[in-house]
Automatic annotation (TrEMBL), chains A, B:
Its EC number is 2.6.1.-. It holds the Pfam family Aminotran_1_2. InterPro entries: Aminotransferase_I/II_large (IPR004839), Class-I_PLP-dep_aminotransf (IPR050859), PyrdxlP-dep_Trfase (IPR015424), PyrdxlP-dep_Trfase_major (IPR015421), PyrdxlP-dep_Trfase_small (IPR015422). Keywords: Aminotransferase, Pyridoxal phosphate, Transferase. Belongs to the class-I pyridoxal-phosphate-dependent aminotransferase family. One of its GO terms (biological process) is alpha-amino acid metabolic process. This is 2-aminoadipate transaminase. The keyword Ribonucleoprotein does not apply. Its cofactor is pyridoxal 5'-phosphate.
Length: 398, 398
């Protein structure tokens, strides 16, 4: 006799998750994948990380293996606060350590969102964030954007129409588009957020991966905004995604609510990993390491942009990101990037179709290309193949 | 102008969490605490663990720092499956790795429970599990128990009355009571669960910490029950709570739902920690290590039981656990263990008041004592002081 577990409505009919499929796709051995946002493992600062694990287990071993603190270990909170204080004065007790940014997003949703609440997001936006919000029964409304991020008039209109509980933004080198909100746009958006007393979830995992130009301060650092923003950083893109260490900055009593949620979800994050990351930030040269990574990534972005330049259909629009990991192409009429993926994989190249990043009205001609994983030569050759697939697709009768 | 974040109904008015308060209490330097279920850090197998971290970072470093698999790294799933297979044949693909059992409980609640669903629990039961269920709006109904666990007639009646979505049990060395369901009771309960086609969440973090007698198979291993049980283990009590590695066994399509939930919550658990724990289980001597721990814990249980024997009021009932970490006392009439805690702390000894472990009808005379953290001498002296506090409390006019 078969038995079926009860399945909560939030997951009924969901056989799998888009993010999981990214990783499955990226693992196919016969395909050069630009689908996942996977750092190049050859660039990891492995010797330094091993040194830090060894130091922690030698000098703080009993503590590293013991239960820790829900909000995070003191050293890790101090180091996270110091990094955030480059742009926004932050004390350790305003920082909660999370198991990657993903847990930070899930905790924010647990703490803030009731079923049926509206959360406004950029259109398109990071799909794993949408998953975390959707798991709480939130209605996710995409706000129209241009190459400088969310459009102020559209944001104003969406607030008026939907009375949202929160706004979710990735202002720097956004996933999936690679676009960055300039300071003037941050100020316009911040003014609207302030005036409507709207809670802002500001996700900034890529901001330090800037290839050129000046670093931009987070929206949270604009006057009055720090107290109504949950600002999130992560070590995943700077040091290692495998250690799963991120953090959230919050002011006032909401920090306590985040801690109650964290306690229910996972009690605390790995103490070994927290102490090791704190040691790394204290004693190793993250800035120097990131400078090396940026240098490599910049060349790869150039290789990808050069290989595509002038070779996409006239109807195409492509971003030229100043940092981060992603380039985004809207190929325009005649192309369905989801349908084209099978041909691309047959040609040995994979990308991520863009439609899944839209909360509403998906643009099926879009695709996301990560430029960080492969060498410039592999990128150039793969983009040649991709251009060939696009050309063949356009030649087919519709 | 102040700003108040919206707070989801599930956390409204919850200023803190009971589990967090355990750890805060345990950290007071002037008090010998028996409140938390804190392993003695002097017993950690630190050299072996350091060896395993070093091996992983030397031989699997790039993989350890990279993104991993939502369900868990293959080696870790294999090792977890091998441990479970001692009692119940388990394949690696039936195992999901979680960031401690707490995340496993939260994921189970995410996957199974809608708001308003009833989940049956032992009365009393593990309060952090109740938190994970309550965060999903579940109604938590405690089923009456005796020293052998949940009472079959009471379970039958509760199923009839509440049509529960699931039943949550800790059959071995339960938290908080230390009690164990004998095989005959497991069979009676299993028969009821089968007949009512009820989903069972079986939490077994302590089962391997048995001081005497035969190991008991989990309820999930009884005929027909594996397919309707989510069975959970953890390394927290055997190796280290700080590494946050636990796992859930599931058969059939519910495993996919658990993975979707895990992906939304935290993407995956620390790859470094997973590979290290797998290496530890593969190459080090966990059984030998646990045998040493058991030997120490047995003496400590004896020290605590001896120090209390014959010295509690006639109305008191105390458990004599054959394993695990906890001893449970119901002091009976005239004592409110919550009110008495301040006097106990003034006398330099802390316990955990038992009322918070009850879903309904709390017995305020109960308290939980962890016997694993301190030496027999410290236990004996502290129990002397606790007996003094109890005696003085009984002498006070009510």
């Amino acid at each position: 006799m078969t038995f079926d577990f009860p399945v909560a409505d939030r997951y009924r009919g969901l056989a799998t998750s888009p993010v999981k499929e990214i990783f499955a796709l990226a693992a196919r051995p016969d395909v050069v994948s630009f689908a996942g946002g996977i750092p190049d493992p050859a660039l990891f600062d492995l010797d330094a990380v091993r040194r830090c694990y060894d130091w922690v287990l030698t000098h703080q071993g009993q503590r590293a293996l013991q239960y820790g603190v829900t909000e995070g270990e003191a050293e890790m909170r101090e180091q996270a606060a110091a990094r955030m204080s480059r742009f926004l004065p932050t004390s350790a007790d305003q920082v909660q350590i999370t198991s990657g940014s993903q847990e930070g997003l899930f905790i924010a949703a647990q703490a803030l969102l009731n079923e049926g609440d509206v959360i406004l997001v950029e259109s398109p936006t990071y799909l794993a964030a949408v998953q975390a919000f959707a798991a709480h029964g939130a209605r996710i409304i995409g706000v129209p954007c241009d190459d400088h991020g969310v459009l102020p008039d559209a944001l104003e209109a969406a607030i008026g129409e939907h009375s949202p509980a929160a706004l979710y933004l990735i202002p720097s080198f956004q996933n999936p588009t690679g676009r960055t909100m300039p300071m003037s746009r941050r100020e316009q958006v911040g003014e609207i957020v302030l005036r409507h007393r709207l809670a802002l979830i500001e996700d900034d995992p890529y901001g330090d991966l800037r290839f050129s130009g000046e670093a931009l301060a987070p929206i949270a650092s604009l006057p009055g905004l720090s107290k109504q923003t949950l600002l999130m950083n992560s070590m995943s893109k700077l040091m290692s995604p495998g250690v799963r260490i991120g953090w959230t900055r919050a002011e006032g009593p909401i920090g306590q609510t985040l801690a109650v949620a964290k306690s229910a979800i996972s009690m605390q994050s790995s103490v070994v990993d927290q102490l090791t990351v704190a040691r790394y930030l204290e004693t190793e040269d993250l800035e120097g390491h990131v400078a090396q990574v940026i240098d490599v990534y910049r060349h790869r972005r150039d290789a990808m942009a050069d290989a595509l330049s002038g070779r996409l259909p006239d109807s195409a629009h492509i971003t030229y990101p100043e940092g981060g990991m992603f380039l985004w192409a809207s190929l325009g009429s005649g192309i369905n990037a989801q349908d084209m993926l099978a041909d691309a994989c047959d040609a040995g190249v994979a990308y991520l179709p863009g439609w899944s990043f839209f909360a509403q009205d998906p643009d099926f001609s879009t695709l996301r290309l990560s430029f960080v994983t492969h060498s410039p030569d592999v990128i150039a050759e793969s983009m040649d193949r991709l251009v060939g697939v696009i050309d063949r697709t356009l030649e087919q009768p519709i």
